[in-house]
Write a structure and sequence with these properties.
This protein has 3 domains: about 110 residues, 3-Layer(aba) Sandwich (Rossmann fold), CATH 3.40.50; about 120 residues, Rossmann fold (3-Layer(aba) Sandwich), CATH 3.40.50; about 170 residues, Jelly Rolls (Sandwich). It is built from 10 helices and 23 strands. By secondary structure, it is an alpha/beta fold. Helix 6 crosses helix 7. The chain starts with a strand and ends with a strand. The relative contact order is 0.11. Helix content is about 25%, strand content about 25%.
Amino acid sequence: MTARIIDGKTIAADLRGKVTDSVHRLLRDRGLVPGIAVVLVGQNPASEVYVRTKSKMVAAAGMHALDRKLPVTTSEAELLDLVATLNADPAVNGILVQLPLPPQIDSHKIIAAIDPAKDVDGFHPLNVGRLASGLPGLVPCTPLGCVMLAKTVHGSLAGLDAVVIGRSNIVGKPVAQLLLAENATVTIAHSKTRDLPALCRRADLLIAAIGRPEMVRADWIKPGATVIDVGINRVAGQEGQQAGKSRIVGDVAFAEAAAVAGALTPVPPETDRPDSFTYDPANPVTSYGGNVCCTGNAITAGSFDQRKMEARADILVYTSEPFTEGTEISGPIVPTLYVSSDVKDTDFTVKVLDVYPDGRAYNLDESIQRMRYREGYETPPVWMEKGKVYKVALQPLTTSNYFAPGHRLRIEVSSSNFPRFDRNLNTGGNNYDESEGVVARNTVHHSKEHPSQVTVTVVKR
């Protein structure tokens, strides 16, 4: 058995689109833009990453991101004063205080001081109680995400035997309450549970949230079970890897679990893990906003709803945070990619777009590299070797565009963006005689060894 990999990225993209729609409707119908205050105390590296990501998502959805960064020496009284100010501010609709807090601050007091109606994390005792009572309220996002992922596998969770490993207030306890609300039969396991592997083996749905690297092994899992791995753990590299190189693993031994489970969430991504995507001739990436090459029957240039692309697994998307001031992108844009493929010929395309606050986007420019002609059209075709990494410097794009405040710069990397497919069907044949398309699994690498990048010239006004 090979487990189905649960595609959280697609689910997240769809959810972000729905949130963005709601924000736009609120602005259109009531003239209101929600404001989310994200509070960070100190300079914990992991917390800084979380806060930066949260603020980016808030802004991308069209809301106001109101960051509050305080020094590590901040006292409990000072933080309580800030929370009180945010509670009273009508421009602030949600408050996130990033945990953990420095030792001089009691996190329980801070959470209890947040207005329950603005408690976006769902940690306030009133919201915890409402969840346990089955009443509507704000719910912690990670447990809610676990349930959403599980429901993509099982249309209904009613009657499932669910085991939750971990009893934290952040994940374990609230996810158990949410599963009860879905009419699952729930067992919470913890460090004192007897014969934990045997308990897990009876679960139709297993959720691991314990913070122990690869603790859940294959023989803990019921064949065909759905496994949700919440853990993010950094461990030393395996023998033979680069000295000092660490890696990220979950609470579940992924490779083992994939051979037993029916469905499984993937290992958390490394920052230097390659991005892979598939070219499928039966389901091509539409050339939105104008041609990439050669023919004139692409979708007419102009605006389009950008979110239609974000849900696709066969396109890599890199989007800036909304510009806070008018910004000009002027001069050459130089894409340099380190790529590989499992076929001997493919192509890689890069497109540059201006994304408006309402989700519309305009194509600004694009470039394409036919891999068989990477050494030039005047030389004989050179086929790719399967899995070998090639450096590709695409033709520089020249553009001069002004991005208004609130707009985003978006870069798309994909393959075979041709609006017609009587050419370049990734078969490795002559240029015009392909008759059958071949699915190509392409990879863009980005690491210290393979620093894929797009150089953009920015002029702030």
